[in-house]
Each structure stands twice: as C-alpha cells, then as structure tokens.
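Researcher: Structure prediction, please.
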Amino acid sequence: MNIQFISHLISNIGCSAIIAFFFIRIDKANIVIKSKAKSKKDIVVLSFFFSLLAISGTYIGLNFNGAILNTRNVGVIAGGLLGGPYVAVITGLVAGIHRAIVNLGRETAIPCAIATILGGFLTAYVSRFAKNKDRMFFAFLLAFVVENLSMALILLIQKDKILAQSIVKNFYIPMVFMNSVGASVLILLVEDIIQKSELIAGNQAKLALEIANKTLPYFRDTENLSEVCKIIANSLGARATVITDTKEIIAGFSTDKTVINRNNIRSNNTKEVLKTGEVMVVIKDDEDEIIEDFSYISPHIKSCIILPLKEKNDVSGTLKIFFDTAEKITEKNRYLMIGLSHLISTQMEISKVENLISLLKYSELKALQSQINPHFLFNVLNTMTSLIRTNPEKAREVTIDLSNYLRYNLDNNLKNVELIKELNQIDTYIKIEKARFGDKLNIIYDVDESLYNFQIPSLIIQPLVENSIKHGILKKRDKGFVKIIVKKIDKDIEVLGKMMELV
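Model: Predicted structure follows.
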C-alpha cells in the first residue's frame, strides 16, 4: 500500500511543480518573488496562487478510510518561504479552512485543518530569518514538522483510535517523506528558474554594455556611425544594421557587403515607427513576398526589428536590425534590442551635447582671437607710423615681423597647433612689442623640450604675455621680464605667464 501511496504523491507533486513552473515563468510573478519588499497587491497575488496550489493538493488527493492522502502543506510551505510571512499565514488559513469545511475525508478534516493553519504560522515565523540559500533545507524541515504534527493531531482528536492508528500507519511514511521532499523540490524548481532568468538578464545586460562600450568612440562623428552598425550586427548575429534620422539613412552595414547608401527614407514601416515611436517587427512569411525594407539589402533577409531612437522623448531616428531567420527575434532578444536602442539614443544625445560644447569653446576661442588681432594691429600700426619717421630700418624689421605674425595666423587657423610653433609666434610678438617698449621688455622661457610637439589651441599663450606686459611691466619704471612656464601635469600641460622685475 505504501508504494501505491508514494506513487500517487509523486504524481501530485509533479502536477504542483508543473503549475508552479508556468506561474514563475510569468515575468511579473518572477519579479514579485525576487522582490524583498512586496506590496499589498503582490501579497494578494501570491496568496491567491499558493492557496489554489494548496487546495488543489487536497482535491487531487487519494481518499483512504475517510482520510485524504494529499500535498496541501507543500503549497502552504512553499508559498510562505517564497512569498514571505503574510503569504504563509493567508495561504495556511485559506487552505486550512477549506480542508475543514470541504466534504472530503471528514474523519481527519479537523486535525488536518489545524495542522495546515499552524503550518502557515510556523512557516511565517521561519520565513522572516530564512536566507535564500537555506530555503530548501527549511522547506524539508517545515514539511517534516507539519506532517508529524498532522499525524499527532489525528491520533489525539480522532475518536475512533483504531481508525486513527490505521490512517497514521499507512500515511506516515508516504506523507512525511514525500511532502518533505516535494516542498524542497518545489523550492529548488522555483529558485532554479529565477537564477536562470537572472543569468539570462545578466548576459543580456553584459552584451548590451559591451556593444555600448565598443560603439561609444564612434558616436562623436556621424561619419563613423557605419562602424556602430557593424559592431551591432556582429554582436547580435544580424545580417545587416541601419541607422536613420527622421528623413534619411545616415549609416548602415551589411554582412553581404551590400553598400547601404545615404538615401531618403522610403519604407512605410520606418515612417510608421518614426510617427508612433513604437517598436515594429517585420517578418517575411512567404519566400516570394517582396518587402521594401528587405529588398534593398539582401535576398536572404527574413525578419527585421525597427526600433525608435529618441531625443528628449521625441523620436529622432530609427535603428533597424535585419536577420536571416524569423526565429532570431525572440522575446528575450527583443528586450535586449530595445534596451540597446535606449543606450544608443542616450549616447547619440550625449555626443550631440559634447559637440555643442566643443563648438561653443571653439567659438569662444575664435572670439578671443578676433579681439586680440584688432587690438594688437592698432598698436603695431601706431608704432610703425612713428618708426617710419625716426628709424626707417627698424620700421622695415617690424613690418617683416608683422608679416610673419599675420602669416602664422592665416596658416594656422585651426583648433590646435604644436607648442613650438606657438612659442615661435610669441617670439615674433615680443619682437614687435619691443619696438614699442625697447629694453624694458624681456622674455624668458622655462619649457621642457619634450613638450614641443604637444598640441594646444592657437593664440592661447599670447593673452598671458599681453596681460603680463599691460598689468605688470608697463606699470613699473624699471626693466622687467615675462617668464613663460610650460610644465606637464599627468596627461595635460599647464602654461603660466609671470611678470618679474629684473634684479
């Protein structure tokens, strides 16, 4: 008889495991069970499910001499350890009260109901300190205790002692052993599914971040976005990748070596995504079907996902990823690609901001340069006017120096120049200024020669020298000198201009 009972309980536990498997596969249920802080709604949902699981354990049980061979307590214990103390108490009360009032196995209804309710409270207490890694052990221990409690209550409460002893004799080993193992197995199953889902999510996040890190250097220049498309295609095993703005294709890559030109958007599907901001999946069901999104890339394309790229919640373009089979656009990969599109949107937005900041700094620098040149030219022309009358030869030298100075400015109208060129320009500037101030003005350089090829903004040193002359030397009666110090700090250089008196 014990073999038959054990076989029946194994079957029932298997049914409970299948139900739990499908429940935990629901994303919301998975998230709720993993969450430590559960809302009232979460508690209600979990209590409802595990109460049904416990009650089903009663209904599919085997009737023997007015008693039910069941797996009810498995649902109560598993629900409590996975859902927390409130779920344990609620599930225990619901399943226990149901056992007391249902017209099944009336001979043991009350003792079994009491054991189930007490099992709910006991599980609630244990769940408060049970760690995740210990839940399997506590599930086995709780089921063992609750089933023994149930057997003891049957012997105590049942008036027909002979019947009570017969029930306990036949039920004890199957119920105590199988329900203890069953509760542990149910916990193991749920935790295994959760761990695997976390592993998959972790791998997806890792892949998305790897793609983001690889593509980051290329976002600063739209000409390099084809490299971004290539990285995405290779990382996802895609046939092709295309990035568009709101009007045209701006970059693309195909493993078939198809050249994806910069053309206006003709695809109605792409236009729809730009309009709605919703993700769209396009699948080629018929081999002879002609889909505009696929035809211009490769005849091997079978599916495509079109994802909106957004800037400040407004759609600014699309990311289109093409595959050679429809099976590659799984729900898992769909979420991965949606997350990837969000990262790309953020990177493109950051790159635009960085470009704007760079342009602003460049504009400020050019504005400074435009202020320097007129001011400086005004002073030089006045000096030359005076020298033409008093010292024509000196005027000729100043004219040559001014010519060299202006030629440098015209030839190096770029963002950066080598430090040595800038220092040579300062020499020319000082020669011109010495025509005005004579021996009162001198300059000393304290520069490491290894820094001569370091790139710096053009005309960045002259304001330092000019201010040192204006606010330092010109206010002194005696001679003075300007000291230019250039030193390396980590990967950068620091340029200092100091006015010092000659001693």
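Model: Residues 307 and 338 are 7 Å apart (CA to CA).
Researcher: Thanks, that helps.
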